[in-house]
Amino acid sequence: MPRLQVAVDTPQHAGLDTTLDYLSEQPLALGTLVRAPLGKREVLGIVWPGGAGEVPDQDLKPLVAVLDTLPALDAAWQSLVTFASGYYQRGLGELALSVLPPELHKLDASQLALRLRKLHKAMATTADAGPAEAPLSPSPEQAAVLADLDATPAATPVLLHGVTGSGKTEVYLHAAAQTLAAGRQALVLVPEINLTPQLEARFAARFAGRRIVSLHSALTPAQRLRSWLAAHLGLADLVLGTRLAIFTPMPRLGLIVVDEEHDPSYKQQEGARYSARDLAVYRARLQDARVLLGSATPSLESWQRANEGRYRRLELPSRIGGALLPRVRLVDMNQQPKDRGGAALSPPLLEAIRQRIARGEQSLVFLNRRGYAPVLHCADCGWKSGCPHCSAWRVFHKLDRTLRCHHCGFTERVPRACPECGNLDIAPIGRGTERLEEQIGQLLADAQGVPPRIARIDADSTRLKGSLEAQLGAVHAGEVDVLVGTQMVTKGHDFRRITLVAAVNPDSALFSSDFRAPERLFGLLMQAAGRAGRSAEHAQAAEMWVQTWHPQHPLYAALRQHDFAAFAEGQLKERESAGLPPFAHLAMLRADAKQAEAAQDFLQAAADLAPALPGADQVSVYAPVPLPVARVAGVERMQMLVESASRPALQHFLAAWAPALHGLRRSGARKVLRWAIDVDPLAI
To answer: Which residues pair with 412 in a beta bridge?
Structure first.
């Protein structure tokens, strides 16, 4: 019987090889899906390239079944998974099997064949969607970008830097049209699930009659499998999805678009901590496809690569239709009355919102903290609503009278009195979006006491299925005067009636210990400003208000000019002098344990292994430190930074270090619950 290498999902700590040997009744093509025995279980596996192991044939188990109704996963997909597995230091089988649809793991050959028949039947009888929407005539700037795009070799990644409202989506649509006309497939990535439906509607209107599928975690398992199969079989022309879609097999792939490429949502934070944006660039090279990265505030890594000539940078510096970018107004909170009765909004901002309401225009007020207040406090004894399982406060949610930990989910009813001294007068400190919504309703009520029409969009108010769509629909229909929300409302939405956007308390990120915090804040404020004045008729009145205690900060000076290039130049100079990315390369080793000492001991033992490993002379290993929120759900978390000026040297070191860490964990000497290496970490 032929002997095959099969990738299966084996835990890394088990010490098994990246692939296992099995016997097969017949030779199978690489990439074929099979069902294989693993211990007492039967699991999904993928026939993988590689030489035979050392186990004698008589000790090998035969495959249980071959899912040969499905074409094999192609060589480019295998190469993508192999690269990601090595670069991000995860098991090959673990990564390869985790990026397949969960439903696929449950099906046998006959069940899969039935799904395929249903899919082919559905695709063959797709109803005629009517005539396609005619492409818009490009603006002169868009026409120049499209001409430059055509002249750029497909092998060169393109960074599309366009201000908010400049028509980047139209460039995506033109690029996709060219790709589909050439008989190839297009993959469009978006950072947030809630942006997928509106982008899908744009593409569906433009490409009526084409097969478009979505891939994101909000789909049911059956829907996700159907979309994945349509892409893999080449039946889908366009795939729209979040970061998980980067691993979708697409045999005719010709274009990858990464919208809002700066967004941290493209970085997976659990399991294989991959960056979908970075893998998009690698995958495009594998499949001879074009990759188009778009953003109004590109990541500094991408911006620097364009500075170095590794990416082609194309610019859309103006809004469509001659609409102006909103004027940025800084409210110096040092000059505002100190006794405002706890109001979050300054008097001039309140007056500006009143004027918008009187003119029938809309305002957006955002505060990146949900709940009513971040903590409850007893003034008599000093008690605060801490979480017993985390080193964090439980947030007060007034609507359901609960204290809720946003880290572990632990929830209790608000106590009637202080749990420690019995004082009945326990009060909220600080504010979240719930409290902001309540205050705006009180402060902007008319002479009869009727509040304005307010909608709140955050993770709490949109928890139920369909609630986000309903709230956004009300905003678009003009049924809302003031929209209150977290950063959810600042990304990608095309609000035509909003003429004022206000940031209530953005200063905390200015002095964060995380070197990326200013970059994230500038991007957030630029994106938020982009929600105002998106229609030409309202553009003249569009304003962005920022309440700040530090109006002279250079970040706000760049924001007032909408000058991302100046901001990026200043940040890149700081990072180069400090030896930070993109001028250095980082990895983070994280360890979780029941006791902080155990996590620290593991990390210290890992550091002690480092000097003897290849490449250690080009790598710096720093001391272990706790995470900012050190305890979550009763688990202590520690981390250790690894830095190198050379990416190859760092990879060489990590490749030798990871097996040693598995051995350290298996020795049992250090009682850690889990550990992981995060390559190119976003949060430091």
So the answer is: 403
| Helices within 268-401 (DSSP H only) | 276-286, 300-307, 347-358
Unique residue bearing structure tokens 């890394």: 12
What's the token pair of residue 684?
């430091």
- Please tell me whether residue 205 adopts helix, strand or coil conformation: helix
* pLDDT reading at 12 higher than 70: no
Strand ranges, E, within 211-289:
212-215, 238-241, 253-259
| Cα distance between residue 304 and residue 311, in whole Å | 9
For residue range 633-646, list pLDDT tens digits in order. Answer: 999 999 999 999 99
pLDDT average, residue stretch 331-338: 90
Residues 498 and 349 in one domain: yes
Identify the weakest region by mean pLDDT among 160-174, 454-468, 533-547.
533-547
* Alpha-carbon separation of residue 364 from 491, 500, 679 (angstroms): 12, 6, 37
- Cα angle: 518, vertex 524, 529; to 5 degrees: 125
Closest CA to 313 of 191, 540, 161: 161
3-state secondary structure of 260: coil
- DSSP letter at 634 equals T
The Cα 581–Cα 121 span in angstroms is 50
For residue 369, what pLDDT is reported?
87
Cα 498–chain centre separation: 26
| Same-domain pairing of 389 and 524 | no
Domain that holds residue 30: 3-124
Q: Where would I find the beta strands (DSSP E) of 168-311? A: 185-189, 212-215, 238-241, 253-259, 290-295
Q: For residues 506 and 551, what is the distance between their CA atoms, to the nearest angstrom?
A: 11
For 278-300, the pLDDT digits (tens) are 999 999 999 999 999 999 999 99
Q: Give the span between the Cα atoms of 241 and 656, in whole angstroms.
A: 35
User: Which tokens in the block code for residue 492?
Assistant: 């990608």
DSSP-assigned letters across all residues of 115-144? HHHHHHHHHHTPPP--SPPPPPPPPHHHHH
Residue-wise pLDDT for 232-267, tens only, equals 999 999 999 999 999 999 999 999 999 999 999 999
Tokens of 6: 């099969």
Last residue of a domain, one of 530, 548, 574: 574
* pLDDT confidence of residue 535: 67
426 and 436, same domain (yes or no): no
Cα separation, 334 vs 365, whole angstroms: 20
pTM of the model: 0.91
Distance CA 182, CA 589 (A): 45
* Total structural domains within the chain: 5
Q: C-alpha distances in angstroms, 442 versus 345, 417, 438, 451?
A: 12, 27, 6, 7
Residue among 186, 283, 163 at smallest CA distance from 234:
186
CA distance 659 to 679: 16
pLDDT one-digit tens code per residue, 57-84: 888 999 999 999 999 999 999 999 999 9
Q: Looking at residue 594, which CATH number applies to its domain?
A: 3.30.70.100
Residue in the structure block whose two tokens are 């120049």: 144
Q: Which residues contact 79 (CB under 8 A, 6 or more apart)?
A: 286
Instruction: Give me the helices (H) in 287-431, please.
Output: 300-307, 347-358
